[in-house]
Amino acid sequence: MLYLPGFVFSLGTVLAAGRLLELAWGMPFWLPALVWLAAGLLVFHRPTEDLYARYVLGFRYPLPHERARLETVWHEVTGRAGIEGNRYGLWIENTDNLNAYAAAGHIVGVTRFALENLSSAQLAAVLAHELGHHTAGHSWSTLAGRWYGLPGRAAFRAGRTVLVSTTSAALRASWLVTAALLAGFGIMLLSPAAMLLGGVPLALLVSPYAAAALSRRAELRADLHAASLGFAPVLVEVLLAMEKAGPPSSRIQGAAMSTESGARSELSSPLLASHPDYATRLHRLRPFLASQH
């Protein structure tokens, strides 16, 4: 439901582009929309996921000694969860930050720093959190939602750019041109079609805040998934260490559900933070600490 307005706006954008291509070259107007819709399914295609991990997220394959340790811990976590661990691909991000990622349908990544500095128990807690993102569908739905909203976001930004540049040019010309331009925009906004579709741009403006709230909820649920597998005390250790170290300076993985970073909390508005604050996460884990002690 969160991604539906963006999808509708994107579908209209792609169909409109297809209509222009049909007029120019005679191709069926629905063909670009069909290709765009089908491309979203590649989130579950393992070879495409590998390319995405390497060339978009910047991950690398683990070295033999890294793979040996990572697979041992990963299979312990998936064994507790009753899930086949080989379904997922393990990746390394070559940075000195403490972080981990769940992306697309089967990508699980950790930073080189996390692999080298966390104990096996701490690493297991982090990976259990990432597994929680995958089992709940957070990762693939986030990536699919971003893909299916991409044409609409591009059209929205292009329209905003044209509006701003046109208004600026009109202001430089004369106040009469500016008044005529604003009157024209007003008539367009009051037209029946604009009134009917007015909710879509409004939803696009609100959606970043709703997406951030949903992301914070997903992080808490992934924490609880790790806690349900018995990793609550160790996960608390990791969160306390990260709170002490402060937010990492690594790049934000736009299409990955990052575990520990809380990096989006550096944005200007707390309402746009993708991660809850540490106090909230620790508070949600308290019942599990009591039961597991």
Question: Your description of this structure?
Answer:
The chain starts with a helix and ends with a helix. The protein has 2 domains: 92 residues, no CATH class; 170 residues, no CATH class. The chain has a 4-stranded mixed beta sheet, sandwiched between helices. About 6% of the residues have low confidence. The chain has 293 residues and is mainly alpha-helical. 68% of the residues lie in helices and 6% in strands. The radius of gyration is 23 Å and the shape is elongated. The protein is built from 11 helices and 4 strands; from the N terminus they run ααααβββααααααβα.
Features:
293 residues, mainly alpha, four-stranded mixed β-sheet, 11 helices, 6% strand
Share of helical residues = 55-70%
Q: How many β-strands, per DSSP?
A: 4
Radius of gyration: 23 Å
> What order do the SSEs take from the amino end to the carboxyl end, as H and E?
HHHHEEEHHHHHHEH
Task: Label the overall shape.
Answer: elongated
Number of helices, where a helix is a run of at least 4 consecutive DSSP H or I residues: 11
In the predicted model, the low-confidence regions spanning at least 5 consecutive residues are 249-267
- End-to-end C-alpha gap: 40 Å
Major sheet characteristics? 4 strands, mixed
- What do the pLDDT scores average to? 82
Structural category: mainly alpha
Number of domains: 2
**In percent, how much strand structure appears in the residues?**
5-15%
